[in-house]
Amino acid sequence: MRKAEHLRFAILAAQREGNRLLIQALKPHGITPSQAEVLRLLQQHGTLSLSGLGQLLVCESGTNPSRLVERVVAAGLVERRTDAEDRRYLHLSLTPEGERLATEVAGIEELLYAGMDAACEGLDTDAMLTFLHRFIDPLPSGEALNKRLDLG
């Protein structure tokens, strides 16, 4: 197996295992990793427009996460308000229950990150990140991630 192929499958396996661990941790809370990402983005940025949220999401392709937002609104985690000046725009923010759950999600993410930090100990993570960004930066997911990094 050539190195590029090995790397591709190692990244895919790591992504799947990380997602599996996150799904298991979120299951008792009744939300998916994509819904958790919405909650955390709204917790970090306060009110966002629907398109603004879409530009920051890495879990979803495209910039209109309407169905994803519908699910968290229906669950009572996110409040959707129409813009007073332009009714075409929606403003999204966390409800008190959404804020509580977003804080729990942050704790779950910290446990996942601690495991990743331990696995990376002694490795050149800057080199890994440089490679990954070289690959993803011109692509939609890379653009979304870079917007989040710029805002952080």
UniProtKB/TrEMBL annotation:
One of its GO terms (biological process) is response to stress. One of its GO terms (molecular function) is DNA-binding transcription factor activity. Residues 1-137 form the HTH marR-type domain. It comes from the Bacteria. PROSITE patterns: HTH_MARR_2. This is MarR family winged helix-turn-helix transcriptional regulator. The lineage of its organism: Bacteria, Bacillati, Actinomycetota, Actinomycetes, Kitasatosporales.
